[in-house]
Amino acid sequence: MLAFIVSILALTGYVCWHLWRIAPPGWKLAVVLLFLLWMASFFIGFAYIEEIPMKAATLLYEIGNTWLIAFMYLLIVFFLADIASLCHLLPKAFLKDSAAGLLWVLGIVTLILVLGGIHYHHKYREEMSLTSTKPLEKPLTIVMASDLHLGYHNRKPELGRWIDMINAEKPDLVLLGGDLVDRSLRPLLEGNYAEEFHRLDAPVLAVPGNHEYFTDFDGVERFYKDAGIQLLKDSVAHFKGLDIIGRNDRSYPGRAALSDLADGCTGFTIVLDHQPSHLEEAAGAGIDFQFSGHTHHGQVWPISWVTDLLYEQAWGHYRKEKTEYYVSSGLGLWGAKVRVGSRSEYLILYIRE
């Protein structure tokens, strides 16, 4: 923790020094103070967002979390500018007392945020078709989504648009792969988000993600019940020839082994497991298909490179032995509504004999 704090302070100092240096005379103090005030909104929101009125909390969440993305890209831009200056590709005067330099830097970061926001609001429709060697009652169409992160930023009107999008697929079943809740139940309860889920035209099954455990989990379970969503926690549900295994999140101590949950399953077997860790477990248990989320595929570049290093499969379709997988980058996201180098998506799974 100490190393993390020191690193944050060092990186903040690096950005502040560059902002002071690049800002023209007379603007230096104002530019640095505005950046630090923006930074403070993130930490104040993190600590006190539950204690302020809803509209103010929503605004503070949006502003503060957008700072986090802007901070990362300011670091990247200034670092690349330093490298370019050392290599004599960029005049040193461009980075000192330069209104043009400041406008270029802020313009680049602003453009990234704006385009990333537009990209986030476009939802990608991914399709997969699988053939079952086990009998089904009928051909099935399943909509799968993960990481809705409903809360102070992904609000009820946006959820309503997602519900309409899912209903347009005319699914037989809807499966949710965890992190439906962002960090707090307060917005969901005050906004009565549960009623929106009742508009879904198909049964809904879900598993908890790690974010469900960031708040009152008993309250989370009540919310799922009020929303008409069957929450699977190390349990199995059966639907028209499918055996659907819902695993508790791996952050939950003592969760059941997948091999034990799969014991006795005779139908086409689907596993919902929020975090795509230890994919070999599903292959070893003879699972037909596993759906996971959690990674967001990094959400913003270059964090996507980090998730690619951390996970065997950080995003997309994958096959291991006879088991098919899909790791979703998520329908919603955590923090600022910005996607760079990743996408917001949902999966349409067709299962036929």
List the helices and strands and how they pair.
Blueprint: H1 2-22, H2 28-48, H3 54-86, H4 99-121, E1 123-131, E2 140-145, H5 156-167, E3 173-176, H6 186-190, H7 194-197, E4 204-206, H8 217-226, E5 229-231, E6 235-239, E7 242-246, H9 258-262, E8 268-272, H10 280-284, E9 289-292, H11 303-310, E10 316-320, E11 323-327, E12 344-352
Parallel strand pairs: 1-12, 2-3, 3-4, 4-5, 7-8, 8-9, 9-11
Antiparallel strand pairs: 2-12, 6-7, 10-11
Helix pairs in contact: 1-2, 1-3, 2-3, 3-4
- Total strand segments: 12
Count of discrete alpha- or pi-helical segments spanning 4 or more residues: 11
What is the CATH homologous superfamily assignment of the largest domain?
Answer: Metallo-dependent phosphatases
* Low-confidence runs of at least 5 consecutive residues: none
Gyration radius, rounded? 23 Å
* Helicity range: 40-55%
> SS-based structural class?
alpha/beta
Number of domains: 2
Mean pLDDT: 96
Describe the strand arrangement of the main beta sheet, using strand numbers: 1-12-2-3-4-5
Can you give a write-up of this model?
With 353 residues, the chain is α/β, with parallel strands linked by helices. It has two domains: 2-119; 124-352, Purple Acid Phosphatase, chain A, domain 2, CATH 3.60.21.10. The chain is built from eleven helices and twelve strands. It has helices at 2-22, 28-48, 54-86, 99-121, 156-167, 186-190, 194-197, 217-226, 258-262, 280-284, 303-310, and strands at residues 123-131, 140-145, 173-176, 204-206, 229-231, 235-239, 242-246, 268-272, 289-292, 316-320, 323-327, 344-352. A six-stranded mixed beta sheet has the order 1-12-2-3-4-5. It has a six-stranded mixed beta sheet with strand order 6-7-8-9-11-10. Helix 1 packs antiparallel against helix 2 and helix 1 (2-22) packs across helix 3. The longest helix has 33 residues, at 54-86. It is elongated and about 75 Å long.
